[in-house]
Amino acid sequence: MATGTKLFGSSIKRREDPRFITGKGIYTDDVKLPGTTCAAFVRSPHAHARIKSVNVVKTKASPGVVAVFTGRDLANAKVGGLPCGWLLPGIKLPPHPALAVETVRYVGDAVAVVIAESAFAAKDAAEKVEIQYEVLPAVTDGLSAVQQGAPTLHSDAPGNICFTWSIGDKEKTESAFRGATIVKQHLVNQRLIPNAMEPRASLASYEPATGDLTLWVTSQNPHVHRLLMAAFVLGIPEHKMRVIAPDVGGGFGSKIFVYPEEVVVAWASRQLGRPVKWTAERRESYMTDAHGRDHITDAEMGFSKDGKIIGLRVKTHANLGAYLSTFAPLIPTYLYGTLLSGLYAIPAIYCEVVGVFTNTTPVDAYRGAGRPEATYLLERLMDLGARARKTDPAEIRRKNFIPADKFPYQTPVALAYDSGNYGPALDRALSMADYRKLRAEQERLRREGRYLGIGFSTYIEACGPAPSQVAGALGAQAGLWESAHVRVHPTGKVTIYTGSHSHGQGHETTFTQIGADELGIPWEDVELVHGDTAAIPFGMGSYGSRSTAVGGSAIVMSLNKIKEKGRKIAAHLLEAAEGDVVFEDGKYFVRGAPSRAKTFQEVALMAYLAHNMPPGLEPGLEATSFFDPPNFTFPFGTHIAVAEVDPETGQVKIVRYVAVDDVGRVVNPMIVDGMVHGGIAQGVAQALWESGVYDSSGQLLTGTMMDYALPKADQLPFFETDRTETPSPVNPLGVKGAGETGTIASTAAVANAVMDALAPLGVSHIDLPLTPDRIWRAIRDAKKGGRA
Amino acid sequence: MNRAISVTVNGKTHKHEVEPRLLLVHYLRDVLNLTGTHVGCDTSQCGACTIIMNDMAVKCCTVLAVQANGSKILTIEGLAKDGQLHPIQEGFWEEHGLQCGFCTPGMIMQALQMLQRNPKPTDAEIRRGLEGNLCRCTGYHNIVKAIQYAAKKMARK
Domain range spanning residue A604? Predict the structure, then answer.
């Protein structure tokens, strides 16, 4: 165990930074290969249309054009559709061709690709593709799409229903509601557009002489990309394909999935025997990166007379977009419905989710993925409950927390929480915020006609779905373990190969902190390799805040194997019994005789010289491990937002933001704080500004950074963060996920703060985002006597 | 059709014949292979492509290469001198002002101009000065601290 050693828990500066701050990072678009051709995609301008004809005669004659391919060409070449990696009972799986053949189903759906000697030539030629469309009626929201008479997207999904899924006990919940005080709310959790700062890109290079295909791609999980593309789409033997995800400029979920462009680029390179590159323009990112959220929900929570939650009933329509993205079915089901107990003891829960196809960009995991939706719902209902009961919002939460002595805790919605102690995080946040003083300040300001609000979000997160057997039973088409290979070199230097992928998380720093600690060697002597299928045995990648809990634990397993083999070699060299040899601070020594010692480096050298090895022991010193955790990890915490609303303009100013998170043990506090800051910014932005909007014909109105309101530096405060520490028992490091807590908690905290500010004006709920326009209207309507 | 241009980038003069429609950012990235300057949006909102051109921070995705003819340009690759990081680069490293690193070169170049114009900025002035640079990872918290670190260090010199 790493406890008590010097690097675990220390905020050392990141090892990856020198290359990024000097402009020497290598992102996919920075990779240059001689003879590279450039791809440009021709995309549907219509949300729903039949393709009557595609004429590429003028395109082929355009200067510099190397090739033009249509959906028909790919179909004729038996290129498979894009696969879905999570299946639910009764799910409809309409085909998702990389290039549309007969019908386009969202604005941006790719119809053809032009490959040319330069990006200019490709774009010029793409404009010459002549496509005749028969425009069909479109539907864009998840409720309208299931109404009778709505346009149907896929003939094999009647009523646009992809799946209907439920969890919990319907009858028990219904009976719990009898006699309860019920709060009800219709909630819209709006569509978000990821906007990783690096647009998606791919570069494929096929070598005819060897039959090897190499793909550089903006991926959070290169092995998953290789597996899905090789086995299901391209029919390339898996061992003849190498996927490299070099520096990746943010993912947030959007770079998990297999997209049409990388499929087409890889296939085309094989056809042409030349490298083919595509880099998204930002407008293409808006149209084609899988979007997030987009739920329409009716929820009701029942309270007993003494303020205990006695039941929760939820019905959600989840907009999945036009096709099933890679993990789309998972997000509004097992990452949402199972989280609806939050950190509360709720005896009865029932949740039904309808997954719906619409003429919009596919929706999949985005930053929090299902868990922000669950948290927002629960935390809004808790506040409505507190208001109905005239209880303090902090106290109604505390009253309903699962007690610290009840762990592991089985919820009524499938999950068994590993560990938790929720009161201290709430207490710490209340004290940091100086809650009583804040309430007094609120009163004082109200008398001046100013509207300050204090919003809570006490949340739980589930990270790293596990174990694989359970994930498989729930529909996963993949295992959810992680691998690590650790190679000790003859000089005692060490390379760690991880199947996790870092695209901002700082694994090159944290994973080597773990390695150096365990082996007692200098941090500088440990290197991390990630993002290359040729180097790493296998990997499930990084998403769902799983990297350290699952990937880091696999590294610990391999390090332990190395230490054990080293002990055998050392015992032999020291002429001692193996059981008498102790390994500490990079030295093997005989118990009670610390001067009889061999350094880790001496042992490593002997492993490779093999001149004097224990009988029967192989030379070399390396180990591969696969860690399949017994359970998820469940981080939790309390966030408090303080916001002031200007009733004349509807403007919201975030005055303070306090976050107390418990992510178990922390390898590098500086890195965890950084991820929390970014997550809070996203959650605040969902509460106040961001929204992916389509018009009724299916045109994306928020298709550029001018129209889609990303948060800026001058709109945000400094964040006040702290942590409690409840180690997870399900992995050897005691860590929990830390990458998404900020996003999961913060939207609800800010929304609750705004509603708290507006309480004296009679406003109890406004749907997200809480733009000045919506707030102003809600105040006006409330003044007219209506309820917002 | 092509036009001859001469541009001094990071102290070195380059002469090329370029298409009039070639953007300066693509000239830097694809012709000079200076890939530290990034394209995040193509439309001048994100600021990832910010460079210093004739002593002014500009978003070079909306400058044509031909417009840069005769100009002096500083990119992220030219900021460190003799292996010594610039205080702003140091600040970003010390204060964890970056995560994925994609917006970072633009942030640093923007901060350079900000601190030249206002060597002792308040936090609010820094935040306003970053209005044209987007970051999705950090929530800006540590970027502001990184620029304050640099301001203090540069003031000591």
Answer: 17-23+481-627
